[in-house]
Amino acid sequence: MQTEWIELATDSQGYDAASAAAPDIVQSFRQSEEYAAIDAVWQSHAHAEGVSESICREVSLLPSQLHRLYLLASDAFSETFSPTLAVSRPPEDPLIDWQRVRADAARLINFSQGDLPVWLAEANYASQTARDVVLSTEKFCAFQDRAISAKELRVPDLATGLERAARDSYHTYGRGVYLFGGMEPYYLLTGGAGHKASAIYVPARRLIIDLRAGNKKILSPDVLATTFAAQVKRLADHNEDFAKSMAMAEATIHKSKLVLMAGQIENPAHHIWNFYPGIEKIVRGGHSANIDELQTFGSEFLGRFTNIFPEFSDRHTHSPRAAIHSLNPFDPSSLLFQTGGYFITEMLKQRLLKTSAASAATLPATDVPYVWFGLRVGSRSWADQAEEIPLLIAQILAKEPRAQFVLDGFNYPVGEDNISQKWQTAIQDIGDIARSIIKSSPPSAIITNLVGQKLDQALVFAAKTAVYVTPIGSTQHKVGWFSQGDGIIYSGPNILTTRPDRRPGCWEVENILVPKYVIGSSVSSGERRSINDNRPNLENIKLDFDDILQRILDSLKNWQGLHS
Fold first, then answer.
1. C-alpha distances out from residue 307 to 180, 416, 552, Å
2. Confidence of residue 433 (pLDDT cuts 50, 70, 90)
């Protein structure tokens, strides 16, 4: 039956749909010896107890898909409570002070009095809304600053309210999992690109305490089962270590090793917006010495990490990406921790530009009004970009002959590259469009083609851009986050449901010059990468040529006024 069980566990429809279609298979698994063995391991850990070595060996040898299936079939995540939501009703349990739990949750996901960092408190935000958005997101990362400064991660116990220290930590598929002791062991689950505090999980109660960090997907039973299936395996392989960890007195737990992880998402925008801000906070807070080792993974979009943060040159390691990361399982003296953030300060921006200028093959001129066109194919694209950009270039030169032009699309990482091969078809297609635009433009036009160039090259040109025209998304971020020129972002009508000052590209960076959005008419829905691709605003669109031209000319006139 194992084959049928594994198929059920990995069905792309998700467990609810798959189990409803095959109740007999679910029932056979629940009645199996395999289910009973996994249940013994999981339930014993839920009550801080050990289990026999023979059962652990049996569970360890089972396919990981059955560990995941057990968590789904046993309803391991059946209760949910949102303590920061007033209308959310807690489970019936008179022994728990749920008002205290609400207060504990609020403290966990907020800055304590006086510990809002000065660089967030006094930053030059694009607007009051931008400040509100940043702080309402950054508050879910406030626990990181406290943990780094104390070299210990502490979270209140559900039953008593006492703060307990982490006794185990591992990271899987971008989620951080931290285990705490007590009569009923519990977990802190972090997620999102900036590793926000997302939930507390109490296995003995099958209870998810949702901290409402905006990471709804990672709290679905299917994703939770994937996250904690890794722990089933770790418990089976290291049950004796688990039992010793649970037996340790709270007062005896002290961290002798703090290992910091940077994220693994293969997207440069997340490195710039989410990973580097977390490291910068440690440096600016004066806590670099608390980090015993700093690990980075995957593509080095702006080159070697220690070129950006030389403060960690003596403690940095770089490795390939991996699904699961762990130190010594169930060792309370070590902590594998991931930090992050959601705001790019001016200091971080200048650090990244300085690094890029030191490695870029070519630097832009300082007294030239650059007009930047971001190119894209498949989704979020300007349908007539190949035909209309050369016409724009011709008319811009007729009014402003000093103007030079930049074509940008996909940029290669400066250092290790583990991602570009995946996008070779798109890179070729964007490159073909860029070459077509250059061929069709006036011979006098000076055009820098950044498609297929290194990312450092793109950032140094972005910083000197007078005006840019890009689609919504990462294509805009690389220029908009670093430019002090006017921005024109084009998108389909769906973006109108988002307030202008909350739209992508309008709030993520200190001293950002807020771009203007131009709404095009949709010509197609845009390509999705998979059935699970739920990204918004993917429409391919047509734009009003005359409107775009006038906006660019107005921006160039403004640039002349500032540089005359």
1. 36, 14, 36
2. very high
End-to-end CA, the chain: 78
Q: Is residue 371 within 8 Å of residue 404, measured between CB atoms?
A: yes
Q: Please, are residues 369 and 404 in contact by the beta-carbon 8 Å criterion?
A: yes
What is the distance between the alpha carbons of residues 481 and 478, in angstroms, rounded to a whole number?
6
What does the block give as tokens for 226?
């994937």
From the list 349, 193, 153, 191, the residue with the least C-alpha distance to 275 is 193
160-193: per-residue pLDDT in tens?
999 999 999 999 999 999 999 998 999 999 999 9
- Are 538 and 523 in contact, with CB atoms under 8 Å apart? no
Q: Whole-angstrom Cα distance, residue 528 to residue 538?
A: 8
Instruction: Identify the three-state secondary structure at position 355.
Output: helix
**Helix spans in 198-284 (H):** 221-237, 239-247, 268-270, 276-284
User: How far is the C-alpha of 79 from the C-alpha of 202, rounded, in Å?
Assistant: 10
At 281, list the tokens: 């906070």
Q: Which of 520, 280, 501, 514 is nearest to 381 (CA)?
A: 520
Question: What does the pLDDT read at residue 324?
Answer: 87
Q: How far apart are CA 131 and CA 123, in angstroms?
A: 8
3-state class of 13 per DSSP? coil
CA distances from 167 to 229, 243, 289, 327 (A): 18, 11, 22, 12
pLDDT value of residue 115: 76
Q: Is the pLDDT of residue 562 over 90?
A: no
- Using 50, 70 and 90 to split pLDDT, how confident is the model at 93? confident
Contact 195, 325 (CB under 8 A): no
- Residue pair 257/334 in contact (Cβ under 8 Å)? The answer is yes
Report the alpha-carbon distance of residue 99 to residue 83 in Å, rounded: 8
Strand ranges, E, within 11-88 = 79-81
118: Cα within 13 Å, side-chain hemisphere:
4
* Count helices and strands in the chain by DSSP H and E runs: 21, 20
Q: CB of 84 within 8 A of CB of 106? A: yes
d(CA 439, CA 306): 40
Of 243, 330, 249, 329, the closest CA to residue 50 belongs to 243
Nearest 5 degrees, angle CA 165-CA 168-CA 171? 120
Give how far the C-alpha of residue 345 lies from the chain's centroid of Cα atoms, to the nearest Å: 17
